[in-house]
Every structure is written in C-alpha cells, then in structure tokens.
Amino acid sequence: MSKNRRNGSRGHQAHGHQKRRPPAAKTLREPAIFAKDSGTDSEVPHDKVTLAQARRGTPAHRPVRVYADGIFDLFHSGHARALMQAKNLFPNTCLIVGVCSDQLTLKYKGYTVMTEAERYEALIHCRYVDEVVRDAPWTITPEFLKKHRIDFVAHDDIPYTSAGSEDVYKHIKAAGMFVATQRTEGISTSDLITRIVRNYDVYVRRNLQRGYTARELNVGFINENKYRLQNQVDKMKEKVRTVEEKSKDLVHRVEEKSHDLILKWEEKSREFIGNFLELFGPDGPWHMIQERSGRVLQALSPYQSPHTSPSSSPTRGRSRSPPAL
C-alpha cells in the first residue's frame, strides 16, 4: 500500500489513557485503539519471530505485529483491500497502521483532501485494523520499529520513491522484515481526485442546487450565475423530456386501444357477415322459408295458362251465312 493510496483501519477511542485489550478479544463493535506516544506498554515479552514461525502461527498471547503505513486520503476500497491482505498475512496478526500528518504529507507529497483527524478517524473504523499510529514517520527507523514492537512491515512490492530515496522500504527489505501485499488496480486517491476535477462543473452545479453558497465553493460571481443558468436550462430540458415521455406514453396507449378496437371491429364484422350469410344465404333458413311459402301459394292458387295460349285466345268474328230462303 503506497503512501499515495494507503489502507484503512478502525474506530476511535478516547485520546487519553486507553485500556489495552488482547487483539483476540476485540469485537467489531469497537473501533481500533490509538497507539500511545510512548509505544506499547504490554508486559508480554516480545521475542523476535522469524517469517517461518509467523506463518506457522504464534501463541494467542503473542500475535505477530504487522505494520502498514500511508496517507489514506479519501479512504477507499483499494486501501481496505491492502489492509485486509496485511491482516491475513499470518494466522495470528495484530495490524498496526501508521498515518502521516498533514504537515509531513504536504512536505513530501502535497495537499490532501481530508485532514489528518479525518484520516485517523477513517482508519480506526476499518475492520482489519487493531491499532493506529498518528503522525507516523515518513521513513521507518529502527527506533520506531522497536518502540512499537513491530515484527514485519507490509506494503506492495513496487519500490516507493520519496524523500530522496529510490525506495523508502529498502532497509526494511534488507532486514528481512518486509512482506508484500498486492495493489488493487483501477482505484486510487489520485484517480478519484482526477475524476472530480474532470467533472468540476457538474459537482459545482450540483452543490449549488443543494444549498451551498458560491463563497463556500470558491466560485466567482460570473461563474455562479452561469452555473445557475445552466441548472435552470437543465430543469427546463427535464420538463420537456417529461412531457415528451408522457406524450409518447399517451400516444402509445391510444395506438394500443385503436389497434384493439380495430381487431374487435374486424372480429364482430366477420361474425356479423357470417351470421347474415348463415341466415340469408342460399342454404339458410330464410331461403328455405321463401321456397316453402312459394309452394303453399302455388297450391292454393294454381297457375293458369297464359292469355296468349290458343285455348284462351279471343274468337274472331265471322260473317254469318245468309239465312236460307
């Protein structure tokens, strides 16, 4: 965990005297403790353990004390994952996390977003951390290791160039006290800050909407009015989009209803035509009734010969024979 994206730790106890408790007894309901300025006051002998002994597991009363340091600005999942790895390096581990102060960070790296008090507080509430060292040194000294009874130092294996050194952990590695963790790709404090800077206008406009003043956001008069105008334009666009969506939904519903009506009309039309043909068609009951009616009428009133037949043709007048004399 490099000093530009350092890991996390656990909750806060009083800054004054703190009652020590074995790491195994600590529950996740409590924050981690702050280390005393004088170092640990444990009465348990702290004989040096080898890496092999640490990996096999040490007695419950003698956890392996692993130290990880960093800045931990904008504490994120990359920090937490590195601390999780450090906590699980050995079967019985007490994880001590050193957090550099604002003054020291500004000297060697630059400004932070979070203050040191905020960064301390973030670390003591990380579930993997047992103890937090405030105002941790930039370069770890033998005196510091002895003061806090540190067995091993955890960090990613990439050389960390700083404070005029090609690798501030070089002497730790040479002493055989270094254990490597893996970085989490795709997340870092620098990446988060870059994202904020890239979307600066969006975040300023959002915070103006939420009630922050231009003074609090360090925004000038012209830019403030520009952002407020942009917010008004966005609100109008949103209203137009809402109206358009509602209109589209209404049109869609009307189209669906129209389609349903047309289908029902077609079904009813086919049913009506079928019923009509069934009733009035050549094989329908209406045609049969007409045929039967015709036969009845014909039986009651027989059909006569047409007037043009010879039997019914008028008798032509003939000249009568003169009477016999």
Automatic annotation (TrEMBL):
Annotated spans, Disordered: 1-44, 300-325
Keywords in alphabetical order: Coiled coil, Lipid biosynthesis, Lipid metabolism, Nucleotidyltransferase, Phospholipid biosynthesis, Phospholipid metabolism, Transferase
EC category name: transferase
One Pfam family recorded for the sequence: CTP_transf_like
Reactions catalysed: phosphocholine + CTP + H(+) = CDP-choline + diphosphate
Catalytic activity, EC: 2.7.7.15
GO MF entries: choline-phosphate cytidylyltransferase activity; phosphatidylcholine binding
Chain coiled-coil ranges: 226-253
Biased composition (Basic residues): 1-23
Composition bias, Low complexity: 301-325
Ranges of residues in domain Cytidyltransferase-like: 67-195
Pathway assigned in UniProt: Phospholipid metabolism; phosphatidylcholine biosynthesis; phosphatidylcholine from phosphocholine: step 1/2; Lipid metabolism
Protein's job: Catalyzes the key rate-limiting step in the CDP-choline pathway for phosphatidylcholine biosynthesis.
PANTHER family: CHOLINE-PHOSPHATE CYTIDYLYLTRANSFERASE (PTHR10739:SF27), CYTIDYLYLTRANSFERASE (PTHR10739)
Family membership noted in the UniProt record: Belongs to the cytidylyltransferase family.
Descriptive protein name: choline-phosphate cytidylyltransferase
